[in-house]
Amino acid sequence: MINILIVDDHAVVRQGLKQIITDQKDMQVKGEAENAVQALQLLAAASFNLIILDITLPGSKSGLDLVPEIKELRPAIKILILSMHAEEQFAIRALKSGANGYITKQSAPTELVKAIRKVQSGGKYISQSIAEQLAFFYSDEQEKPRHDRLSDREFQVLRMMAAGKTLREIADQLVISEKTVSTYRMRILEKMQMTRNAELIRYAVENKLIE
């Protein structure tokens, strides 16, 4: 039996995933969590084979932030990232951080079971649409986007800035100092060869880095 933990802050999404999984005789949803804190508590208290993890979570930690912590706590567990984002940059970062697969919420009704079976058997899974984007992303003719130069934390700060959060709000959410956030901001501007926040915001919007 494949014991599954679903981590998503939307009850409707969790219910939809459960309905898909319930139809499979060798799978069961053994736990549900709305945020990173609840997820880690459940992982510490019970045994799971696989976790379906939303990339966008409330609180200071995103799904991408949570992946390394999950792997440290439960090295053998399989992680399937579920996201509303189909863009290749999120899939790349998820797989690099240690996730075993990446599917979009739109493709979940048709691909979820196949993805679960693939990653549980030791493979990697990405949907066909994302695979096509990745192929284009890595083609010799296509220059990689500037945000690919950023670390995961810098990428997170960029998205928060683009969403209109102030330095204080970012610092509070990430539990770091405003000075540290300012340092991240300077690194982001330097790596992306920009000089103003307005340029970062426009870039993030044009490249669909924010919801």
Using the CA coordinates, give the radius of gyration: 18 Å
Q: What is the N-to-C succession of helices and strands?
A: EHEHEHEHEHEHHHHH
Lateral arrangement of strands in the main beta sheet: 2-1-3-4-5-6
- The residue ranges in which pLDDT falls below 50 over 5 or more consecutive positions are none
Query: What's the β-strand tally?
Result: 6
Shape: globular
Strand proportion, as a percent range, falls in 5-15%
The SS-based structural class is alpha/beta
What is the number of helices?
A: 10
Helical content stands at 40-55%
Quick one: biggest sheet? Answer: 6 strands, parallel
N-to-C CA distance: 36 Å
Q: Give the overall average pLDDT.
A: 85
Report on this structure.
- By secondary structure, this protein is of the alpha/beta class.
- The protein is 51% helix and 14% strand.
- It contains 10 helices and 6 strands; from the N terminus they run E-H-E-H-E-H-E-H-E-H-E-H-H-H-H-H.
- It has helices at 11-22, 36-45, 63-73, 88-96, 108-120, 128-137, 152-162, 167-174, 178-191, 197-206; strands at 2-7, 27-33, 50-54, 78-83, 101-104, 125-126.
- A 6-stranded parallel β-sheet has the order 2-1-3-4-5-6, with helices on both faces.
- Helix 2 (36-45) packs parallel to helix 3 and helix 8 (167-174) crosses helix 9 (178-191).
- The longest helix has 14 residues, at 178-191.
- The model has no long low-confidence stretch (mean pLDDT 85).
